[in-house]
Request: fold
Amino acid sequence: MRVLVTRAIEDAERTALKLQARGHVPVLAPLRHCESVAGTVPPGDYAAMLATSRHAFAGEPLPEGLSALPCYCVGQRTAEAARHAGFHHAEALGGDGAALAAALAERLPKGARLVYLAGSPRHSALEDGLAACGFHVTVHSRYAMVRVTRLPDEAGEALRAGALDAALHYSAESARAFLTLVEADGLLPQAQKIPHLCLSAAIAAVFPPGFRLFTAKIAEEDALLALLEST
Reply:
């Protein structure tokens, strides 16, 4: 199968290797790129740091004192990036922001002060879930995911020629970017013909009626790739 991968290039290249190992042909279409955001974490008596992406640890180093705090993350790759950045205790809890908030509600005392190393744009599920549980969250912007202005040539040509068998979507914002770009190129009818495999229900919800949508059973890449065998 020829599979469209709509991730930032570093992540897309890793996914490409997994697809090739399964006998598929990846077509990389990075629709966003990461830009670091400068700034300092406000002082405070924090109980933990939070991160939902490895990009939170790119750019300028965080103050050394923060690395002594536990860092709770969405996904193992984010936790690995936290450890590489110097956090002594970095742990993956859940596959998305809502799951991380629920896990922290069982682990940390109500009213704890937390720092969220956030990106822009971002989904509000983590912050909303933590606020509902009585936590005090300081959002510290670390990076921005910036959309490309046009669909990559290889992706556009493959869609136009009907040469794609499926598309992988890893975030709601990238899915929105995909829809905007294919519509701008007049390729919406072609995009509707192929299966769109989404890492979560929140991503699938971005698509309007008329698309063939499949959602991974759990928000992990292996579960997403397993859908290729059933589409």
